[in-house]
Amino acid sequence: MINVALSAGADSELGFPAWLRAAHFINLLFMGLLIRSGFEILSSHPRLYWRNDCGPGTEWIRFTKKKVPSEEGAYFARDDECTLSPLISLPGRKNIGIARYWHGVITTLWILNGLVYVVLLFGTGEWRRIVPTSWSVFPDAWESLKIYAGFGVPSLEHFQPYDALQQLMYFTVVFVAAPLMIVTGPVMSPAVVGRFPWYPKLFGGRQAARSLHFLGMAFFAVFTVMHVTLVFVVHPDHNLTQMVLGEADPARFAQALTMTIIGLVGVVVLWLAASYWSLSDLRRSQVIFERLTEPIRRMTVNRLVSRQRSKQVWTEKDISPYHWSNGRHPVGDESPEWGRLRGNDWKDYRLEIGGLVDEPVSLSLDDLRAMPRQTQITMHTCMQGWTGIAKWSGVRLKDVLDLVEKKPGARYVKLTSFGLAQKMHGGKPLEPYYTCLPPEVVEEDETILAFDMNDKPLPLTFGAPLRLRVESIHGYKMIKYIRSIEWVEDYRTEGDGRGGTREDSSYQSFNARI
Ligand SMILES: Nc1nc2c(c(=O)[nH]1)N[C@H]1C(S)=C(S)[C@@H](COP(=O)(O)O)O[C@H]1N2
Ligand SMILES: [Mo]
Predict the structure, then answer these.
(1) Which H helix or E strand runs over 432?
(2) What is the spatial distance between Cα 440 and Cα 503, in angstroms, rounded to a whole number?
């Protein structure tokens, strides 16, 4: 009791300084943007798992009624995507590419805001508000909970300025839930998981980390709703004046209430404005975000190169019994040529290696199979959220490229598929799927042109007769049904200039490491 009285005395001296009030408000703005962009990301694969395999039926929760046929290749991850309204998610309408940009940029700002808050918290003594210093916080919190459960409100003297239950909740938000989000977030990055394979294991695997990240979000969402409600219900004349004016002053309640309402409306308007601004010109949003994020990516994830093969992270027994897929093989007259080659068991298949080279080369599958072979068991990470582990065999891309002499100025490698894009920017007629790779991706040891999957020639669904594997980036760069490889000067002069089909038509990032 003496303890409480003492700290209460100290607390009332602390007040609610402007930095604290500002950080609190900015946090609300950022949390909303994070949760809303998180919804958009989740809606692109609305299933959560504990196991890395992601087999249909193994999810612990799903937010879709769609049933997944269990034969591989009958259903594609893109068929599973849901559409959310821009009123709910950021930006809304199946735009995970832009949602991921928002999520990354706001995370950075949210962490900065959080750092400033925590540093000042400990620098000023304000921490005593939310860090319990006596075990009595637990029985006291239990008493408060009983009062709330009976739709009552603890009397004012329990709030010093927070009551025990409130203090415990705030402590959990700042020192448990927020750090949990920060440590599970990077597990979504294929570059992080490829380079530090032990890291996802701390959480029970890549999908377990994704599930924990979701549960953290659910906690934040429920907390925020309860928190805002209680602020208006429990001694609002004290709470609101403290929150916006800096001290409990029931006489200025009307002013505080007006400011709170204006603040909340302003935040909601900004949340929605972010959606409609993004949707009004998706290409502009993509270009702006790319400029903002690229310098940070270069300093961080771009330095991470997969070690899944060299560290033998996965073994035969880890191979997924079911592997999700994206990008159907060419059907009908989409690519008569691919159909003809397939009819002849790929005997006439030739991989063309050309572009800015002195002399183009073409290779048959037998030529490729005669080259030094590399086999790797790795985890595939689709940006939508699912993963799958498989064994891939093929030849290193850099070995194949060594067979040609590139011309000066050739910097990027463009790979083109027999298969068509699912959609094009501006509703143009569908063109073949393509992707460009920057030099550092081409150079990676685990970048291969694979012709075998799990010791058998590539199944049609998974890219027959030849597909790309890069183990430190997201799946959308891993082009299947490869027809040709070209050295090009710049990806900005290919296609719509964004670096690949998904970048051009779905506004995804050319940099696919996170
Ligand atoms: N030709 C072609 N390749 C493609 C795609 C596509 O649509 N067309 N989708 C990509 C995406 S988004 C992913 S996640 C992987 C999926 O590989 P999988 O089908 O082998 O699982 O293929 C990539 N390669
Ligand atoms: Mo993907």
Answers:
(1) strand 432-437
(2) 18
CA 402 to ligand 2 center in whole angstroms: 29
Q: Say yes or no: CB of residue 475 within 6 Å of ligand 1.
A: yes
Phi–psi pair at 182, nearest 5 degrees: -70, -35
- Residue nearest (by alpha carbon) to ligand 1 atom 21: 325
Contacts of 448 (CB under 8 A, 6+ apart): 374, 376, 392, 393, 394, 395, 396, 397, 468, 469
Answer yes or no: is the C-beta of 476 below 6 A from any ligand 1 atom: yes
Which parts of 304-436 fold into alpha helices (H)?
336-343, 365-370, 397-401
Assign a CATH topology to domain 316-506: Sulfite Oxidase; Chain A, domain 2 (3.90.420)
Task: Evaluate whether 257 touches 243 at the Cβ level (below 8 Å).
Answer: no
User: Which residues place a Cβ less than 5 A from the ion ligand 2?
Assistant: 326, 382, 475-476
For residue 12, pLDDT beyond 60: no
Cβ–ligand 1 contact at 478 (below 6 Å): yes
pTM: 0.94
* 10 vs 423: which has the higher pLDDT: 423
Domain ranges of the chain: 8-45+81-299, 316-506
Atom of ligand 1 nearest to the CA of 502: 12
Give residue 14's pLDDT band: very low, low, confident or very high (50, 70, 90): confident
The first and second tokens of residue 491, run together, are 């990806």
- Label the pairing between strands 482-488 and 351-355: parallel
Asked if residue 481 has its Cβ within 6 Å of ligand 1, the reply is yes
> What band does 73 get if pLDDT is binned at 50, 70 and 90?
confident
CA 219 to ligand 2 centroid distance, Å: 28
> Where are the strands (E) in 234-386, listed by range?
351-355, 361-363, 374-381
Beta bridge partners of 375: 393
Fold of 8-45+81-299: Fumarate Reductase Cytochrome B subunit (1.20.950)
Confidence of residue 333 (pLDDT cuts 50, 70, 90): confident
pLDDT (0 to 100) of residue 160? 83
433 Cβ inside 6 Å of ligand 1: yes
**CB-based contact 513:189 (threshold 8 Å):** yes
Q: Which of 194, 202, 141, 139 is nearest to 166 (CA)?
A: 141
Question: Is residue 2 pLDDT above 90, yes or no?
Answer: no
Q: Ligand 2: distance of its center to the CA of 44 in Å?
A: 10
Burial classification of residue 492, based on how many CB atoms lie within 10 Å of its CB (0-12 exposed, 13-18 middle, 19 or more buried): middle
Tell me how far the alpha carbon of residue 90 lies from the centroid of ligand 1, in angstroms: 25
